[in-house]
Amino acid sequence: MKPKRYYIPMIRSFFILLFALFVGITPTNIHAQPSGQELYANNCASCHKIDQVLVGPALGGIDKRRDEAWLLKWIRNSAAVIASGDQYAVDLFNQYNKTAMPAYDWSDEEIKSVLAYIKEEEKALANKPKAADGGTAAASANGGGGATRGESALMVLALIVFGALLLFAGRLLSAQYRLRGIRLFHWNTINAGLFIVFLVVGMALVAVQFARFMRHTLPVAASEHGVVLDQMLAITFWITFVVFVITHILLFVYPWMYRRKGLESKALHYAHNDRLEFAWTVVPAIVLTILVLYGTKVWREITQSEPGTDAHEIELFAYQYAWQARLPGSDGVLGRHDYRLIGATNSMGIDPESKEAQDDLLVPEVYLPVGEPVVLRLRARDVIHSAYLPHFRVQMNVVPGMPTQFVFTPTITTEEMREKINNYNFNYVLACNKICGAAHFNMRMKFVVVTRKEYDQWLAKQRTYFKKPETQTASILLP
Amino acid sequence: MSHSNPSASTAHGHDHGHDHGHHKETFLTKYIFSQDHKMIGKQYLLTGMFMAVVAALLSLLFRLQLGWPEDTFPWLESILGDWAKGGRLDPSFYLALVTMHGTIMVFFVLTAGLSGTFSNLLIPLQIGARDMASPFLNMLSYWIFFLSTVIMLLSLFIESGPAAAGWTIYPPLSALPQAMPGSGLGMTLWLISMTLFIASSLMAALNYITTILNLRTPGMTMTRMPLTVWSFFTTAILGVLSFPVLLSAAVLLIFDRSFGTSFYLSEIFIAGETLNRTGGSPILFQHLFWFLGHPEVYIVLMPALGITSEVIATNARKPIFGYRAMVGSLLGISFLSFIVWGHHMFVTGMNPFLGNVFMILTLVIAVPSAVKTFNYLATLWKGNIRFTPGMLFAIGLVSLFISGGLTGIYLGNAALDINLHDTYFVVAHFHLVMGSASLFGMLAGVYHWYPRMFGRMMNEKLGYLHFWLTFAAVYMVFFPMHFMGIDGVPRRYYNFTGFEYMAEWMDLNRFISISAILGSAAQLIFIWNFFSSMRMGKKAPMNPWNSNTLEWTAPVEHLHGNWPGEIPHVHRWPYDYSRPGASEDFIPQTVKDDDLPEELRKPSVQPVPHHAEKEAVPTETLLFSRLLQALGFRKA
Q1: Least confidently predicted of A109-118, A439-448, B438-447, B564-573
Q2: For residue A63, what pLDDT is reported?
Q3: Number of A–B residue contacts, CB under 8 Å
C-alpha cells in the first residue's frame, strides 16, 4: 500500500511537469483553440467554483442536476430560458440575487469541453484528501508549504521564549532588589539598551527582507512609461531610505546616549535654534520640490498624452465580476453603445443599428502588438471597478456613467518576458483593483503581447460581437 | 473618592454654570450622565478601548482567511453561521470584516477614543478651567456617540451582514442593495450611525474650541499652552470644518438609497435590470468623502503628536525643541490638510491637471511633518531620558511616524501612485503612519495620564513588556506589506490564489497573520494592567512625573471643578525643564518669577510678551497677533 501512495503523486507530477514544459515552451500554445480549462478559467471562474458557492452556484455535479440540452440553452442565453418560464431557471435566477449570467456564444464542442473540464475537476477535488495523505513529498514539491509551518512554529516559539525571558528578568530583578537592597538591573538602562537592540535587529531584518522579497516583486516594466516610473520609484526609494536609516539611528541611539544615568545626570536646557530649524525646513522643502517637479513632468507625459490615430483602441468593459474586451474591427471605429440596450444577449449594450458596431470584435483575451501604442477605453456597467495591469504599470478606475482611458505602449512580448524571468507559465494579467463586491478578488483577464505578425494571425480568428453565420468556428485549427 | 464641593463661582475664571453644591451626586449623575469632563473622558476611553477590541477581533478573522485560505476552521461556522459555511469565510463577509475594521478603528477608536478621551481630560485641566464651556453639551456629545456606537455594533448582528463596501463606502457599490448583501440594511445602519457620530463630534469640537479660547486661566496665553492643547485645538477646528462635508455626502447617499435620487448614480445595469438613474457622478461622492477623509487622517494623528510632544519633553527633562515651529507646523498641517484630498483620487479618472495640483500640495505637507520629526529628535538630544511606558510609546510613535510618513512621499506622487494605488503599499503606509502611530499616541497618553485619571500608577514592567511586544509586532505585520505593494498585490482581496504573481506571497501572508495574532495577544497585557491597576496599582502622588503642566497641580482625588480653592494662575510656559541654576529639574507653570533666584527670572525662550500676563481672556485681535508672533511673523 504505502509505496503505491508515494509514487502515484510522483508520476502525476512528472506528467504535469512534462505537460507544463510542453505547453510552456511551445510558442504555439498561445494560439491554440481554447481548451475547456481555458474557457472555464477566463469566463466561468470569476463567478463559479466547483465545490463552493461564489456569485453563482457551485458547478460540481451540474451534469447530474441538468441535462446537456438544457445546459446548452442556458449557457448560450440564460435570459431566454428564464423568459420561457422554465421553473428551474426562474428559481435559480431568484435564488442568486437576480444576477443574470452573461450569454456565451460558444459552439457545442466548446460547451462540452467546459462541462468535461468541470467533471474532471470535480473528480480531482474528490480525490484530493487521499492524495494529501501521500506525505509531505508532494506538498513540498509544489512550493515549500512545509517550510512555512516550521518557520511560523519557530517564530511563535521564539516570541514565547522572549516573553518568558523578560518576565523572568523582571522576577529576578525584584528578588535581587529585596534581598540585597541594590539593583542588579536598572530598567532605565535596559529599556535604553533595547532600543539599540531593536535598531540592530530591525535594520538586519530590513536587509533580509530586501534580499528575500525584492526578487518576488514585479519584473522590469513592460511598457514605455513603466520604465520611467520604475526609475522614479528607485530615486524616491534611495532618498527616503537614507532618511529612514539616519533618522532611525538617531532616534534609537539618542535614548541610549542620553538615558538617565543616575541622580547627577542632567539634561541640557536647549529650547530652540532658529538656524537649525530653518535648515531642516528648507532642506526637505528643496528635496520635495525636486521630486514634485520630476513627478509632475512624468505624470503629465503619461496622462495628458493624446492617443495618436495609429493607437490600437480596446474597450474594456467591467461588471460584477468579469471583464469583457471589444476591438473596433476592420473599420477602426468602435460602434455606439448605450447602457439601456444591455441585456442577457447584449452584455455590453452595443447598438445593433450602429454601422461601426457590425465588425466589432468580442475577444476572450486581449492581444497587443509589441511596440505599438494602445488606448484602453474603460467602461463599467454596475459599480466602480479599476483596470489594473501591474506589469505595464497601468491603472485607471472604471466608473459607471463616466468613460475613462489610459494610453500606453507595451514593449516586451509575453515570450520575451517568460525568458527574462525564467517562468514559462507567465502571463500578463488584468485585475480589478477597486472593491466591487463578493468576487472582486476573482476578476481577471489574460493579456498577451505578441509580434505584429502573430497579432494579425490572432486578429483574423476573432469573432464579431454580433453573431454572424457560423463560418469562423471551423477556421480555428491547431497550427 | 469623596466628592467635596468645589468652591464654585470664584472671582475670576468662568462662571461655574452648573453648581453641584446643592445636591448630592447619585451614581447616575456621577458615573453615567456625568457632566464632569474627567468622567466623560473616561467614558470615551472605555468605549474606545471596547471598540478597539472589537475591531482587532474583526481583523484577526480576516487575517485568518488571508493566512490560511485553503484551510477550514469549523469553529468559525459555530460562531458566524452562514457567514463561514464549512468553516471558511464567505467572500462578502470578508469584505464586511474589512469595512467594519476600518470604520471602527478610524472613527470610533482613533477619533472618538483618542481625541474624545484626551481633549476632555486635558483641555480644562491644562488650561486651568473648572470644566468645559458647556458641560451639558459635552455630556450630550458622549451619549450621542454612545448611541452611534450601539447602532454600528448592532449592524454586525443583522442577517444580511454589516456594511461591506469598504470604510470609504464608494457608491454605486454602497448605494445599491443589489450590488452586495452589505449594501442593504447594514449600509443603512452605517449611515445612521455615522450621522449621529458626526453630530456628536461637532458638539464636542465646538465645546473644545470655545473652552480653549475663553476659559484659559489668567496668565495662560495661547503661546503658553502645552502642545497637547494646541493639537486638540487644531484637531477640533479640522473636525468642525470637515465633518459637516461628510454629513452632506452621507445625506446625499441616503437620498440615493432611499428616495430614488441620482446624485451619485448614472447609467447602471445591475442584477438583470437597467436602473432609471442618470446624471449623477460617483466621483462627486469621492470628492465629498475625502474632503473630510483627508483632514480625518490628521484629526486622528494630531492629538497623538500633541501627546507625544508633552510626554517626550517631560521624560527627556528638556523643553520641547522649537515650540514655535511645533505650533506653526500644527497650523500648517491643519491648513494644508484641507487642500490635499485629491491625492486619494489620482486614478479615478479625475482631470489629470488636478492630479498635478494635488501632488504639489501633498508634498508640501511633508515639510511641516518633517519639521516635527526633527524637533522630536532634537528634544531627545542631550536629554536626561527616563523610560516610562508612556515615553517608550512616544518614541515608538516617532519611529512609526517616520516609517509611514516617508512612504507618503511615494503615494503623494501621482505618477508613482498609478501602480501603487490601492495595493498593500497603501495598507502598509496608512497603518504605520495613521493607524499604529495614533494608537501609540493613545497608549502613551493612557500610561502617562493614568495617575491623573484613576489616582493610581500602572504597573511599569508590564508596560515595558507591552511596549516591546507591540512595537515589534507592528513592524512585523506592516513592514513586509510594502514589498507586496511594490509587487502590485491589491488590497481587499479575499484570497490570492487566482493570480500567480500574488500567490507567491502565501508564506508572507501567513507570517503577517501570525504576527498580528501575537501582537493582539500582547494587548491583553495592557488590558489586564489597565483594569487591575485601578484597584491594585500604587497610589499615585500628585505629580508623579515631575511635570510642569497644570493638571498635576490638582488633587489626586477627583472633584468636579478640579481645584479645591482658587484656580491656579500661570506665570510661565510649560517647558521649563532642567533650567540651569534651578534646584529642581522642572519649574511648574504656576511658579512665579519672584519665587525664583534672580538669574532664572527671565524666561529662557520668550514666546510671550510680558504684558500678556495681565490679560485674563485675550480679545480676538490679541489672539491673532499672538498667533502671528507664535509663527514668528511679528516680534514680541
Answers
A1: A109-118
A2: 82
A3: 376
Q: Could you give the CA distance from residue A318 to residue A382 in angstroms, rounded to a whole number?
A: 8
> What mean pLDDT is reported for chain A?
82
Whether this model's ipTM surpasses 0.85 comes out as yes
What does CATH list as the number for B281-539?
A: 1.20.210.10
Give the amino acid at B158.
I
Would you call A293 an interface residue with chain B, using a CB distance cutoff of 8 Å? no
Is the CB of residue A371 less than 8 Å away from at least one CB of chain B?
no
Which residue in B367, B497, B515 has the most chain A C-beta atoms within 10 A of its own C-beta, making it the best mutation to test that interface?
Answer: B367
Q: Is A305 near chain B, with CB under 8 Å?
A: no
* H/E element, A394: strand A394-398
Supply the DSSP string of B319-350, one letter for each residue. Answer: PPTTHHHHHHHHHHHHHHGGG-GGGG-TTTT-
Start-end ranges of CATH 1.10.760.10 in chain A? 32-139
**B contact test, residue of A257, A339, A389, A397 with most B CBs within 10 A:** A397
Residues of chain B with pLDDT under 70: 1-24, 602-636
- For A32-139, CATH number? 1.10.760.10
Return the exposure string of A252-282: e unless at least 16 CB atoms fall within 10 Å of the residue's CB, then b. Answer: bebbbebbbeeeeeebebbbbeeeebeebbe
Q: Which helix (H) or strand (E) holds A313?
A: strand A312-319
Domain ranges of chain B: 36-221, 281-539
- In this structure, what DSSP letter does residue B544 have? T
* pLDDT confidence bin for A185, thresholds 50/70/90: low
CB distance B461–A393 less than 8 Å? no
Q: What is the CATH number of domain A312-475?
A: 2.60.40.420
B347 contacts A320? CB cut-off 8 A? no
Inform me whether the C-beta atom of residue A195 falls under 8 Å from chain B C-beta atoms: yes
Nearest to B416 among A229, A285, A433 (CB): A229
| Residues 247-306 in B contacting A (C-alpha not used; CB under 8 Å) | 265-274, 278, 280-283
**B569-593 per-position pLDDT tens digit:** 999 999 999 988 888 889 999 998 8
pTM: 0.85
